[in-house]
């Protein structure tokens, strides 16, 4: 191989390498273009209006999403192809193969994203979230009978301090967080466990702007 051929191969190789965005590093106050300019996700689609988190009149502390400002435009990126998804991670962990990534751009800011990291990384991701954000602002509990086959992988995955044991009139029961929720610096972070019979099958991370978001999904 002559020198010119070697140089061409190196240049072609460099051209094929795509930038990788770790979603955990996003500063939501910065322009979305700072993070998306070197990324080539699947073509985004326009959404007219934005979603606002508002208080539900029927419950003082509950929040609900309402679509407002339909004259405004948000851009929603659905990232599903393996090549596109390989450009994104969370704390360095990639998204699982079967699930897509969603990013919403609103007024040139990233207003929302969701990603499904591999379930085997649940413990590490939860620890990193607590290190980054502190203790959760709240949790949404789920309860299973102590004999339920879905419980064992949860007990192996979650911190012991997050598990509650009790007995009701039917059986011994175990409560555990299904959703971890943080409210920090005008943002809502939600980490959701998806259960499996052998391992925690996957987990879902949702990040919302506090008042305005282009997202159409909230699992609180």
Automatic annotation (TrEMBL):
<protein>
    <recommendedName>
        <fullName>Lipoprotein</fullName>
    </recommendedName>
</protein>
């Amino acid at each position: 191989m002559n020198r010119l051929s070697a140089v061409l191969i190196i240049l072609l190789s460099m051209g094929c390498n795509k930038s990788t965005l770790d979603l955990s590093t996003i500063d939501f106050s910065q322009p979305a273009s700072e993070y998306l300019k070197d990324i080539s996700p699947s073509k985004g689609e326009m959404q007219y209006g934005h979603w606002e988190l508002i208080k539900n009149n029927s419950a003082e502390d509950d929040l609900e999403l309402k679509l407002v400002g339909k004259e405004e435009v948000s851009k929603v990126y659905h990232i599903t192809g393996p090549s596109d998804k390989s450009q994104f991670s969370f704390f360095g962990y990639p998204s699982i193969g079967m699930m897509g990534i969603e990013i919403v751009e609103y007024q040139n800011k990233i207003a929302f994203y969701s990603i499904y990291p591999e379930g085997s990384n649940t413990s590490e991701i939860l620890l990193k979230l607590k290190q980054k954000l502190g203790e959760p602002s709240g949790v949404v509990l789920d309860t299973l009978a102590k004999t339920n086959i879905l419980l064992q992988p949860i007990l192996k995955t979650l911190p012991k301090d997050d598990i509650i044991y009790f007995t009701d009139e039917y059986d011994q029961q175990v409560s555990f967080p299904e959703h971890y929720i943080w409210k920090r610096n005008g943002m809502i972070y939600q980490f959701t466990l998806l259960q499996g019979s052998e391992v925690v099958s996957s987990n879902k991370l949702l990040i919302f702007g506090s008042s305005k978001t282009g997202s159409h999904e909230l699992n609180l």
